[in-house]
Amino acid sequence: MSAYKRDLRMRHTTLLICLLFCSMIYGCFHAWRGVARHSSIDWRARNSTQLQSLPTVQRAKCIPYESMRHLIIIPNYAEPISVLQETLYLLSTHPEAKTAYHPILAMEAREMGSVHKALQLLAEFSSSFSGLGYTVHPGDIEGEAIGKSANVSWATRMAWHEMAVGARGIDRTLVTVMDSDSERLPLPRFFCWMV
User: Fold this and answer.
1) What are residue 108's DSSP bridge partners?
2) Are strands 133-137 and 173-177 parallel, antiparallel or unpaired?
3) Residue 110: its pLDDT value, please?
4) What DSSP string describes the chain?
């Protein structure tokens, strides 16, 4: 290959890399601008205004934000209690925690001491939320794979059953599954935005 062709190929490669890099920067800028724009909106007020503008028949079918409940499933297995404490503490600092949050600690029976850990967390954080509970996923259900998805499914079914029996507005409940690691915790206004 001649020096001219090598030089031309190198220039094309450099140009392609520059174009890719510029398109990434352009995409990041637009994503940041969208997040900044949506973060500045008062979603609660916007929801209220939109509800008022609807005809009465349609308004009756809508759920006002204030009556929404958030069932937050937190599956965990062999997590240190300090990780769960930090997660629950950060969730408790959200504005709607005491009125709308109902975290469920989805524990595994395979983990020794999981019930004791859950009870300790309930004692420490029960006053921080509108509700706080735990489930213990049995590890011996025939035909069920061991893992996070089975634990989440079990916790959701148990919590849903408890809420249905207790008549706590199951039709106004939004279910969210999140990691027990507080590094991936939603922002304080995350649940406000889910209208």
Assistant:
1) 137
2) unpaired
3) 92
4) --HHHHHHHHHHHHHHHHHHHHHHHHHHHHHHHHHHHHHTS-HHHHHHHHHHHS-HHHHHHS--GGG-EEEEEEE-SS--HHHHHHHHHHHHTSTTHHHHEEEEEEEETTSTTHHHHHHHHHHHHGGGSS--EEEEE-TT-TT---SHHHHHHHHHHHHHHHHHHTTS-GGGEEEEE--S-GGGPPPTTHHHH--
Q: Flag residues of the chain having pLDDT under 50.
A: none
- What pLDDT, on a 0 to 100 scale, did the predictor assign at position 112? 93
Backbone angles phi, psi at 179, to 5 degrees: -70, 155
Which residue has tokens 């922002």? 187
Domains of the chain plus CATH, in order, are 64-193 (3.90.550.10)
Give the alpha-carbon dihedral of 150, 154, 155, 161, to 10 degrees: 160
d(CA 27, CA 6): 32
pLDDT of residue 43: 73
Looking up tokens 């637009």 gives: 30
Q: What is the pTM assigned to this prediction?
A: 0.73
